[in-house]
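Each record in this resource describes a single protein on a pair of labelled lines. An example record follows, reproduced without changes.
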Amino acid sequence: MKAISQEIQNQSIKSLESTCNKLATAYQRMTEKGVNTTLVKKRLNAVKMGLESLKNIWNGENFSYDEEAILISKKILEDIMPSIEKQIAKAKEGSSQKTLNDRRLTALKLAIESLEKRLSTSLRD
């Protein structure tokens, strides 16, 4: 991965942590209501893996997933991006919603890049 400033690293980690918290809350509420939680659970797991991948690269924290799990999570993260891009397009310039989604999109792109790097490394091994 290319060099990323400490500020972007911190913002990306905070953004993905916030996304995990929101997805975990949504999962809990949906479970309580007895609604289908499959999509939310997949997204939660994918965002967690992306977050762990970035924390591993930047902070040396633990990361231990197999190639198949990484591939699935990467695809799920890619599938989330268009909805965030639409939200950014609708948000007013300078609004907190636009800033939040810009940071979320950056964090997802970095997470995807980190997962792609892991896949390319594992394919060479």
